[in-house]
Design brief:
Layout lengths: L8 E2 L6 E4 L3 E3 L2 E3 L1 H10 L4 E3 L8 E4 L6 E3 L6 H12 L5 E4 H8 L4 E2 L2 E6 L2 E5 L7 E4 L17 H6 L2 H16 L5 E3 L8 E5 L2 E8 L6 H22 L6 E7 L7 H8 L3 E4 L6
Length: 278
């Protein structure tokens, strides 16, 4: 069965029957429908239809990235109107754009687009908070084994491979879910922060640092630098017009109280497990 987890995301092509409105704009290139069909079927799509038949579960509108769809013949908008009508009636049909199609091809979830009809042949795409930064529900990572004989250590990768790090990520995720917030992975073009979430009108991006068996000062300094760099990359890229809050998440409370003020002075929110301020 096709997966539309949390109704806001399409997590894969698996089980979907697709329909298209035409060519698809994929990462700066117009791609014809036949090539899109081949890509989708190679990743689990079961079929495609030339029109909005009752079997269609995923409509791909290749030009929704423009945020505004208008055509006098209604060739494009009528499919969107029908898909939206079917969705409102309870049929599990998703609508994605070219960016979402490219995300699915690359193994990332795609946003199930929300539409607003401004007229009989005009469709507006409603932007989502965190678009371009957050890339869908967070997936559980496997903890790799590290070879202690390695001469060169990538401290960031090494930390992400520890059980303490992953336990902290999981605990923070559970806390967010209890608050009704969705912990998310980075988007395909976003920097590699550990997880993010939206709260009110703010996009939070978090770097998690374990402290067990490590140099605490080194870990906190490393984490502050990483999350500040991620936030600056996002600002420079123009990925988001929304406020971005960098968050440093520690496994437990640091031994010295200076770190809260140090983080705050740099614009970073500092939290730690196991209660995360609750």
């Amino acid at each position: 069965m096709a997966d539309t987890k949390a109704s806001e995301w399409v997590t894969s092509f698996l089980g979907h029957v697709l329909a298209f409105t035409g060519k698809v704009w994929i990462d700066g290139t117009w791609t014809i429908r036949e090539d899109c069909v081949r890509m989708a079927e190679a990743r689990g799509a079961v079929d495609w239809k030339p029109d909005m038949s009752g079997r269609v579960t995923l409509l791909v509108h290749g030009d929704l990235a423009s945020q505004h769809v208008s055509d006098r013949t209604r060739q494009y908008s009528k499919k969107l109107i029908l898909a939206d009508s079917l969705r409102r009636s309870g049929k599990p049909i998703a609508i994605i754009d070219g960016q979402g199609f490219a995300d699915l091809v690359n193994g990332y979830p795609a946003r199930n687009r929300k539409l607003l009809f401004a007229g009989p042949s005009e469709v507006l795409v409603l932007p989502d908070l965190g678009e371009g930064i957050l890339g869908g529900p967070l997936s559980t990572r496997q903890i790799p084994a590290h070879d202690p004989s390695e001469l060169t250590l990538n401290l960031e990768a090494l930390d992400r491979g520890t059980a303490a790090h992953e336990a902290t990520v999981a605990a923070l995720s559970r806390m967010l879910e209890r608050r009704g917030l969705l912990p998310q992975r980075p988007g395909r073009h976003a920097p590699a922060f550990d997880l993010g979430w939206t709260d009110d009108d703010v996009v939070n991006i978090a770097e998690v640092k374990s402290l067990t068996g490590t140099d605490e000062t080194q870990q906190i300094r490393l984490g502050l630098g990483q999350v500040l760099d991620y936030a600056q990359q996002i600002r420079l890229s123009g990925l988001s017009s929304s406020p971005v809050q960098p968050v440093l998440v520690l496994e437990h409370e640091p031994s010295h109280p200076r770190w809260t003020e140090t983080a705050s002075s740099a614009g970073v929110k500092l939290i730690w497990g196991p209660a995360f301020g609750k």
